[in-house]
Amino acid sequence: MADRTQPLGPLFAAKLRLASAALWWEEVWPALWPAAAILALLAVLGLFDLLPRLPGLAHAAILLALGAAFLILAGVGLRGLAAIDRIAASRRIEQASGLLHRPLQALADQPGVPLDVPSTRLWEAHKRRMGAMVRHLRVGMPRAGLAGRDPWGLRAVLAILLVIGAIDAGDEWRDRLLRAVTPSLSAGAPVVAASLDIWVTPPEYTGLPPQFLRTGMAETVHIPTGSKLIAQVHGPGSAPLLSIDGRTGKFEAADKEDFQVSTMLTRGSRLEISQDGAVLGSWSIAIVPDHPPTVAFVKPPEATARKALALNFQAADDYGVEDVKAVITRAGDKSGAALALDLPLPGVHLKSAHAVSYHDLTPHPWAGLPVEIRLVASDALHQKGESEAVRMTLPERVFKDPVARAIIDQRKELAKNPNSRLAVAEILGDLRSRPQLYRNDAVVFLALRVAQEELRQSGDPQAIAEVERLLWDTALRIEDGQTPLAERELRQLERQLQDALAKNAPDAEIDRLMSQLQQALDRYLQALAQKAMTNPNRPEQQPVDPSQMLTSRDLQQMLNRARELARSGNRDQARQLLSQLQNMLENMRMATPGEMSQQSRAAQQAQQALHGMNDLMKRQQQLLDRSFRAEQQAREDTLDQLGQLGQPARPGPGQPGGRADMNDAAGQQEAVRHSLGRLMQQLGEGFGDIPDPLGRADQAMRNATGALRAGRPGAAISPQTDALDQLQQAARSFAKQMQQRLGGAWGRPADERAGTQGRGGPADRDPLGRPLANGGNYDESDVKIPDAGGLQRARQILDELRRRAGERDRPEIERDYIDRLLKQF
Q1: By C-alpha distance, which of 269, 264, 198 is closest to 225?
Q2: From the DSSP assignment, how many helices (H) and strands (E) are in the chain?
Q3: Residues 221/284, Cβ–Cβ less than 8 Å
Q4: Residue 130 has what pLDDT?
Q5: Angle of CA points 748, 724, 759, to nearest 5°
């Protein structure tokens, strides 16, 4: 039979084939649904691992029954299928497209007899009409038609069970399905498949979470060395075996059907657990070694202004550095004598640590002698890493008093050669016999006498060490009076407080050390003041610049800020603030006002110019804010007038944005411009160079003044913003220029170093609001210290959390969450 659909084109032929396929599906799927339900039932039983729990014969019988039911139902369904012809496919397309009077059939028909001309025209018109009806044909989606055959919805139940079974099986779905179709026909009780739980717990110091090993894992499992493996097998059978690279060990029986084993993993590449010859799980493992820590000097050790030893170091470890020490030995000394210094770390268990530690070793007998210094870092496994040794001369204090200097020289000689004790004793006796050299101080007289007799009577190393300490204290008394004792106490408390903050000591301990540090700081500053007053060379004719004085009030405010930070839980920031305080004290100069050099006076003038720029920026910022508020108020008033009267209205003379207000703002803007002109003149006279941005700022201020006088605050906002930006650029370039020109003399006032507003001076910020380093240049560390409002808010939040933690009627999950938050503080 010829293809009667050909005149309709290839597109219709494709749709006809799709319609035939849809009809075939609608016939086959309902017919084979019972057989498919049997397969789904078998899959559910396999995924839940139910069939292997039955006796072998029962397992096999169920498989045979399910197989027979599948074949019978499939045969019955396929036998009742009817052939799909083109007429049925065309009819489906007509029904899916909503066509009436069967236009597809009409297009395929042909006249049975020849037609005359009128009939032919009528026939062609009929075909055109039918063709217009079939321009948009649709096949439609096939319909399953299971509602009639499954009125109880069992197909949905099977689908849900399949999803749950797949989730329960996880990675074991292949093994479970295989066990479901392979029954064990051996005699005996039903064999229940053993279940395996295995996990690895890394050492506590690593901070890593436990790993649960799933069966069928293809990727290599990375396990830190020293991790504890715990495995449990649940099911009957003999004791399972744990094998690591061929080394086997048996599980211990907890009861008849439960076994467990634990071991420490330090090596191996293949982990396997088997029972009764069957492999329950196998994994490829890689033991990650714990490497020794590394430590190095960031820059060579150096002496501070107070002759303390500054050690700038960094250390790193896989899981955390536990402690760092500096080991100092005498260069060329074969006796093995060493001095070990504990270096405080900025936290606990840090994978990477960078810190600067200060140590006053001037009292040590090796002060002024060549030494070798190396750093030693340790981790939780007590593995050690060392840096390269650095040679230097240990910082020593330079004594100005000739008697103190002579005593220190003899002490150094005694440290280099203990056998010279008799010669040293003779020289000490000669010094003792001339008390007028040390102002007839009875304490110095007795100390020299005791040291002389000890050296004459005994050459014991312990006795010589006692004499060395006595000579040091005697020289300090001659040179400084009571100042060294206060300084020593201050250094010790600084180190104790840094250690307590780094080790998360209790709040009570931190508060106690803070109080002691405040008292020690007072005593130290008082001792310095007494020394300055008793200095016979102190000049009286030259005034002291107050901005260059570091007062107790400044440092106490800094300590109070550190105390608040520690109380609010910001211990890292408190520690950094204390480190800044320590840097200030280490770099504090003891020069008198008469020693101010011309370079220092130039630096003071530069500071005053920078403060002048800061003041101009503050005034310009206030004018910018004022213009913005005036423009905003004018817009709001205009909108209100339009809504009430239907017409615009201008601000009154006394309102923000009014004529009087704008004239006043223009006058203030012009005053700022005149101040800028005076500053530019001072810079030109004092330094011979005026930053270019200041000229641009002057022009911008001129434009802003014109806009304000015209009563247009919105037009003044842009030039005022530009003026502020240019002032900031000028301050930045001027500060860098002064740093390059003046070097170390370019410093900051004491108020700024203390981070306070003492006597109206600027805070510990440059005019751009960035922190300044000790040399006056810009600090790149970006240590953010919260202001008083932030500290108060943090304190309020902490108190509220503690209050809520004490309310026992709150839900347990909420109280657990609050407890976890409080642990952060």
Answers
A1: 264
A2: 22, 18
A3: yes
A4: 64
A5: 35
**CA 494/CA 578 separation, integer angstroms:** 8
Q: What is the pLDDT, as a whole number, of residue 367?
A: 87
Give bridge partners of residue 355 from the DSSP assignment: 313
If phi > 0 it is left, if psi is from -120 to 50 it is alpha, else beta; for residue 394 that is: beta
Among the listed residues 728, 747, 726, 733, the one whose alpha carbon sits nearest the alpha carbon of residue 687: 733
Residue in the structure block whose two tokens are 């402690």 = 323
The Cα–Cα gap between 643 and 761 comes to: 49
Residue predicted with more confidence, 661 or 139: 661
pLDDT for the residue numbered 133:
60
Query: Are β-strands 323-330 and 370-378 bridged in parallel, bridged antiparallel, or unpaired?
Result: antiparallel
Question: C-alpha 772: how far from its chain's center?
Answer: 24
Average pLDDT of 765-771?
A: 44
Q: Judge whether 314 and 295 are in contact, CB under 8 Å.
A: yes
Any bridge partners for residue 303, and if so which? 309
Q: What is the DSSP string of 385-416?
A: EEPPPEEEEPP-----SHHHHHHHHHHHHHHH
Give me the DSSP letters along 442-472.
HHHHHHHHHHHHHHHH---HHHHHHHHHHHH
The single-letter code of the amino acid at 473 is D
324 bridge partner residues: 343, 377
Pairing type for strands 221-224 and 278-288 reads parallel
Cα 79 from Cα 643, distance rounded (Å) = 84
Local confidence band at 190 (pLDDT 50, 70, 90 cut-offs): very low
* 95 Cβ neighbours under 8 A, 6+ residues apart: 140
Residue written as token pair 């040293």: 424
Q: Is the pLDDT of residue 193 over 90?
A: no
pLDDT tens-digit map of 302-326:
988 778 899 999 999 999 999 999 9
pLDDT digits (tens, 9 = 90+) for 474-506: 888 887 765 666 777 777 787 788 778 777 778
Return the structure tokens found at 25: 């599906």
Which of 601, 613, 593, 543 lies closest to 745, judged by CA? 601
* Integer CA distances (angstroms), 509 to 515, 517, 522, 576, 742, in order: 10, 12, 20, 18, 44
Structure-block tokens of residue 771: 């922190």
By residue count, the chain amounts to 825
Three-state secondary structure along 166-187?
Answer: HHHHHHHHHHHHHHHCCCCCCC
Q: Cα torsion for 440, 441, 444, 448, to the nearest 10°?
A: 30
772 contact partners, CB below 8 Å, separation of at least 6 = 748, 752, 764, 765, 766, 778, 779
Q: What is the CA radius of gyration of the chain?
A: 46
Q: Residues 395-445: pLDDT tens digits?
A: 988 888 888 888 888 888 888 888 888 888 888 888 888 888 888 888 888
Q: d(Cα 48, Cα 41) in Å, to the nearest integer?
A: 11
Residue in the structure block whose two tokens are 């989606």:
141
The residue to which tokens 């059978």 are assigned: 237
- How many C-alpha atoms does 139 have within 13 Å on its Cβ side? 17
Range 740-773 burial, b when 16+ CB lie within 10 A, else e: eebeebbbbbbbbbbbbebeebbbbebbeeebbe
pLDDT tier at 140, thresholds 50, 70, 90: low
Please give the full DSSP string across 544-603, using - where no structure is assigned: --GGG---HHHHHHHHHHHHHHHHTT-HHHHHHHHHHHHHHHHH-----GGG--HHHHHH
Looking at the DSSP bridge assignments, the partners of residue 310 are 302, 358
Q: What is the DSSP string of 97-147?
A: HT-SS-HHHHHH---SS---HHHHHHHHHHHHHHHHHTSS----------T
Q: Which amino acid is at 100?
A: L
Question: Distance between alpha carbon 753 and the CA centroid of its chain, in Å?
Answer: 28
Q: Which two tokens stand for residue 452?
A: 């002389």
| Kind and range of the H or E run holding 230 | strand 227-234
